[in-house]
From TrEMBL:
Annotated ranges, domain Lysozyme inhibitor LprI-like N-terminal: 43-135, 144-206
Keyword Signal carried by entry: yes
Secretion signal span: 1-19
Keyword Signal part of the UniProt annotation: yes
Keyword field: Signal
Originating species: Paraburkholderia phenoliruptrix
Top-level taxon of the source organism: Bacteria
The protein's name: Lysozyme inhibitor LprI family protein
Length: 233
């Protein structure tokens, strides 16, 4: 039982410290109550079963979804009409990517066996919701402070060495995961990647070049983790 709690805490510690976008890490350092409540839940002896640990993460995911929805409602009235349309497009694309990603996670973890992979899947269901909530919170703070929105046209990714390198890594892990996926599941990966690409395109007008790198870097981390997970027993 102690091993399960250790694994779950390791997954969520990696999430909090390593997976959040750069723009959100200052807020993460403040130890959000949702994260603190999840850690407390994971450490409880009566939640030491796999089901209990997953329940702790699912409760946190629901908490972050509520935070996401609240931040989205707060953001909309703060934006000028043109900017609001860009954010609406980005949010719709994020949700579509999230829906496609759920199917991909199910397909990848269906190829695994073992308690640690049950916990890992729960962690990966939580992470994108948490990250998006933090992005929206940051946008609300910027809008409320009257910060000027990003308007500078970004260089093409091919002209930005960091972006080009990140895309190279992403494509490398995508191909590695594709090779490890069962043939009948590869279309799920293709759909998820297309949905993510649509999200990147919708989000790019709202960020600077570092923000674009953060989005791509998060995708690299996801595909790397899934490529290392698929087929494990």
């Amino acid at each position: 039982m102690r091993l399960k709690r250790t694994l779950a805490l390791a997954f969520t510690s990696a999430l909090v410290l390593g997976a959040a976008p750069l723009a959100a890490r200052a807020e993460v350092a403040a130890a959000d109550p949702i994260d603190a409540a999840m850690r407390t839940c994971l450490a409880r002896s009566d939640m030491s079963s796999t089901a209990g640990q997953v329940q702790c993460m699912e409760t946190a995911r629901i908490g972050w979804k509520t935070a996401l929805d609240n931040a989205w409602r707060q953001l909309q009235p703060e934006l000028p009409p043109a900017r609001r349309k860009q954010w609406e497009k980005s949010q719709a694309a994020w949700q579509a990517s999230r829906d496609a990603e759920k199917q991909l996670l199910a397909a990848v973890f269906a190829t695994t066996r073992g308690t640690m992979y049950v916990l890992a899947e729960a962690d990966m269901q939580l992470q994108p919701v948490r990250d998006r909530a933090l992005v929206l919170r940051s946008a609300v703070a910027d809008a409320s402070a009257g910060d000027s929105p990003h308007t500078k046209r970004l260089r093409a990714c091919a002209a930005d060495a960091r972006c080009e390198h990140a895309m190279f890594d992403m494509n490398r892990y995508y191909r590695r995961l594709q090779a490890k996926m069962p043939l009948h599941s590869r279309a799920t990966l293709t759909r998820a990647q297309k949905a993510w690409t649509a999200y990147l395109n919708a989000a790019t007008p709202l960020v600077d070049e570092r923000g674009r790198i953060d989005i791509i870097g998060a995708r690299v981390a996801t595909l790397k983790r899934l490529s290392e997970t698929a087929g494990n027993h």
